[in-house]
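Field log, afternoon session.

UNIT: design team B
ACTIVITY: writing a sequence onto a fixed backbone
BACKBONE:
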């Protein structure tokens, strides 16, 4: 039989895309494979439609899939945390597309350092003596403890023995770094005498951990960075501060990195893909002699940044050279600092794009967004969302589109929170709502 006649029996793409749970990429892959088998003479007829549909639904998409975050959680860990600024994304594309001067000194023609540009930018932004970066903040803390504290004790408050997600806990990180934990104080209160009395010949460092993913309310007491730094200096010990999120601008009650450096912390560790708004990275900065010990430790090579993350991080830090510009260019900062009036206008603009029939089933409601990603615990950001009062079926339907739209359900309403939605995605969302409603 003529192979072209057989190919005519293939179902159309439009028909497949009308089925629940079908992605265009998967449908294209399955149809292409069947077409190739027919042309090669491996099969003499198009499989039944039900079989084709089953294959399409079971075909997993390759690589990471872009989704639209309509949850109102800015640093949504399950959705990849911080979206990169356009300038940082462009830097990644350039680094990925060809060769670069990653470890090559263009002036001398000799081998160079992959960290030279990063160190210069971080020193200028934070006034730290030196800096380096690894693949996440847990790695940064692990490297600092391994390089500076192995075989000895680390003094830390009981109220700061946090779990940072995924069952990674501070005591376990300390143990993995080869150090021994020395707990002081109580869960909700610690004073400077607790630290002083715990110091012995076995003490390698004082460790302070910012409780960036929870807050203790009521009667609490903690020792400031400045007090701990003075004690550490008088006893000839380094003060290590695990800052967690880490911000270079004022965001709520989050301490700024440069303030922690100014208050005397010898080593500061923080994330690149949280409040900084860059790629996944762990940044270590502080005293030059201590940073050098971290850089020379064998673990550093296993944890160091690849060229793509390094390109994104340097580009992100470059934006911070103009703080006003950073507030506009870095998506995380733009989302967290947008005023309620701006969010409300976004909601109105999106609703105006939806078909009139779908508009009748939607309303704009007040809601609250969150920072997420283990940052700014308890902080809520007034927001607005498009709401639908029949959530169950629509939530799944939005999630299974070619470009998935991830919403949230609250009090029996499906909410599309405008704080985390990019205006560039309005047309896609409006189309989806029009089709589904």
């Amino acid at each position: 039989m003529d192979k072209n006649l057989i190919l005519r029996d293939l179902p159309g793409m439009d028909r497949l895309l009308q089925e629940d749970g079908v992605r265009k990429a998967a449908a294209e892959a399955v149809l292409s494979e069947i077409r190739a088998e027919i042309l090669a003479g491996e099969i003499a007829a198009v499989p039944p439609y039900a079989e084709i549909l089953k294959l399409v639904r079971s075909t997993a998409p390759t690589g990471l899939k872009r989704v639209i975050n309509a949850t109102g959680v800015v640093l949504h860990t399950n959705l990849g945390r911080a979206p990169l600024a356009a300038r940082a994304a462009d830097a990644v594309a350039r680094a990925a597309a060809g060769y670069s001067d990653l470890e090559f000194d263009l002036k001398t023609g000799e081998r160079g350092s992959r960290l030279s540009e990063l160190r210069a930018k971080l020193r200028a932004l934070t006034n730290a003596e030196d800096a380096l970066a690894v693949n996440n903040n847990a790695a940064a803390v692990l490297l600092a403890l391994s390089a500076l504290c192995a075989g000895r004790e680390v003094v830390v408050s009981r109220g700061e023995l946090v779990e940072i997600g995924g069952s990674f806990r501070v005591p376990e990180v300390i143990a993995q770094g080869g150090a021994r934990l020395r707990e002081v104080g109580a869960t909700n209160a610690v004073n400077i005498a607790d630290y002083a009395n715990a110091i012995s010949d076995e003490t390698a460092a004082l460790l302070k951990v910012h409780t960036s993913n929870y807050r203790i309310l009521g009667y609490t007491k903690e020792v400031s960075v400045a007090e701990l730094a003075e004690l550490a200096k008088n006893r000839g010990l380094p003060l290590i501060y695990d800052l967690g999120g880490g911000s270079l601008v004022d965001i709520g009650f989050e301490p700024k990195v440069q303030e922690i450096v100014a208050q005397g912390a010898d080593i500061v560790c923080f994330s690149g893909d949280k409040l900084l708004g860059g790629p996944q990275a762990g940044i270590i900065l502080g005293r030059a002699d201590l940073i050098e010990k971290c850089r020379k430790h064998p673990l550093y090579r296993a944890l160091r940044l690849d060229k793509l993350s390094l390109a994104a991080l340097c580009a992100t830090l470059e934006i911070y050279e103009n703080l006003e510009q950073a507030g506009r260019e870095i998506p995380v900062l733009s989302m967290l600092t947008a005023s309620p009036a701006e969010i409300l206008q976004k909601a109105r603009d999106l609703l105006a794009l939806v078909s009139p029939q779908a508009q009748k089933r939607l309303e704009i409601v007040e809601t609250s967004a969150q920072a997420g990603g283990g940052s700014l615990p308890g902080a809520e950001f007034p927001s607005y969302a498009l709401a639908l009062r029949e959530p169950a079926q629509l939530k799944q339907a939005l999630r299974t589109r070619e470009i998935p739209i991830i919403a949230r359900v609250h009090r029996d309403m499906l909410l599309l929170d405008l704080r985390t939605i990019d205006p560039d995605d309005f047309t896609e969302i409006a189309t989806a709502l029009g089709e589904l409603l």
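LOG NOTE: Residues 253 and 427 are 36 Å apart (CA to CA).
NEXT ACTIVITY: expression trials, pending approval
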